[in-house]
């Protein structure tokens, strides 16, 4: 599977829809910063893998002396670069990126790790994140639903209001083998009229043990913390 690259249409509504669904960008970044500093008080640099439009990075930049991002989707990456000015936002795939340097913290949020199609790809992504950590550095990863927690046939919906436009999002998710296949339909209404577009996403349904195993094999002391900013929990690994 090719890792998901959000379309320009999706990138355009991503922040508004995510906020309408309850995502608190500033609060999440602050929560993760506290978690990182508890484990590595000297942390000064942070890399956000699959950084999207850079909203988390914008807040991280206020908390760390140096930040950077990696993003595979051109549409999302362009928005992040416009938002963040001189902050480096690299073109890269979490399975094989190499920035040639290391950081005190690495984050991967918004369930992006779930787009890995197999345990082998999960291992590759975990290894790349660990490779970019300094000794003592902390990785924080927000996983997709574990296999035993996924609700087959789950439907969701939300409506966002932003700058004179209304955006609706409805989704339907089904289990096919060891993956969640999600159909997401958007309707955008503004002064120019009403338009629709549909996207299809596939996220692997890994087990908690598979996630922990991947980051442990990558050389990190890893634990799973229940809850987290959005209820999926957090994987937290420290490089010795």
List the helices and strands and how they pair.
Elements: H1 8-20, H2 25-39, E1 45-49, H3 55-63, E2 66-71, H4 74-84, E3 89-91, E4 103-108, H5 119-131, E5 133-141, E6 155-162, E7 165-176, E8 179-190, E9 193-204, H6 208-217, E10 220-225, E11 234-239
Parallel strand pairs: 1-2, 1-4, 2-3, 4-5
Antiparallel strand pairs: 5-11, 6-7, 7-8, 8-9, 10-11
Helix pairs in contact: 2-3, 5-6
Defining key terms:
alpha/beta, 6 helices, Rossmann fold, globular, about 30% helix, seven-stranded mixed sheet, S-adenosyl-L-methionine-dependent methyltransferases, single chain, about 240 residues, four-stranded antiparallel sheet
Instruction: Work out the number of β strands.
Output: 11
Name the shape in a single word: globular
Beta-strand portion reads 35-45%
Radius of gyration: 17 Å
Please describe what this structure looks like:
The protein is α/β, with parallel strands linked by helices and 240 residues long. It folds into two domains: 8-146 and 207-239, Rossmann fold; 154-204, S-adenosyl-L-methionine-dependent methyltransferases, CATH 2.20.130. The protein is built from six helices and eleven strands. The chain has helices at residues 8-20, 25-39, 55-63, 74-84, 119-131, 208-217, and strands at residues 45-49, 66-71, 89-91, 103-108, 133-141, 155-162, 165-176, 179-190, 193-204, 220-225, 234-239. A seven-stranded mixed beta sheet has the order 3-2-1-4-5-11-10, sandwiched between helices. The protein has a four-stranded antiparallel beta sheet with strand order 6-7-8-9. Strand 10 and strand 11 (234-239) form a beta hairpin. Helix 2 (25-39) crosses helix 3 and helix 5 (119-131) crosses helix 6 (208-217). The model has no long low-confidence stretch (mean pLDDT 96).
């Amino acid at each position: 599977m090719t890792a998901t690259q959000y379309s320009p249409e999706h990138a355009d509504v991503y922040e508004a829809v995510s906020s309408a669904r309850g995502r608190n960008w500033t609060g999440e970044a602050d929560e993760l910063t506290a978690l990182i500093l508890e484990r590595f008080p000297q942390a000064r640099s942070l890399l956000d893998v699959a950084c999207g439009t850079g909203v988390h990075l914008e807040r991280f930049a206020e908390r760390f002396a140096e930040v950077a991002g990696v993003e595979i989707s051109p549409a999302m990456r362009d928005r992040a670069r416009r938002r963040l000015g001189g902050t480096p936002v690299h073109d890269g795939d979490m399975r094989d990126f190499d920035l040639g340097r290391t950081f005190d913290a690495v984050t991967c949020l918004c369930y992006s790790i779930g787009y890995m199609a197999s345990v082998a790809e999960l291992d590759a992504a975990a290894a790349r994140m660990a490779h970019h950590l300094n000794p003592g550095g902390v990785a924080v990863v927000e996983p997709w639903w574990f296999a035993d927690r996924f609700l087959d046939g789950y439907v969701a919906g939300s409506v966002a209001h932003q700058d004179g436009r209304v955006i609706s999002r409805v989704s339907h998710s089904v289990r096919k083998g060891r993956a969640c296949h999600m159909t997401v339909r958007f309707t955008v209404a503004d002064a120019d009229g009403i338009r629709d577009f549909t996207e299809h996403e596939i996220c692997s349904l890994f087990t908690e043990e598979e996630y922990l195993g991947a980051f442990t094999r990558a050389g990190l002391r890893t634990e799973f913390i229940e809850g987290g900013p959005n209820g999926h929990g957090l994987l937290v690994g420290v490089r010795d």
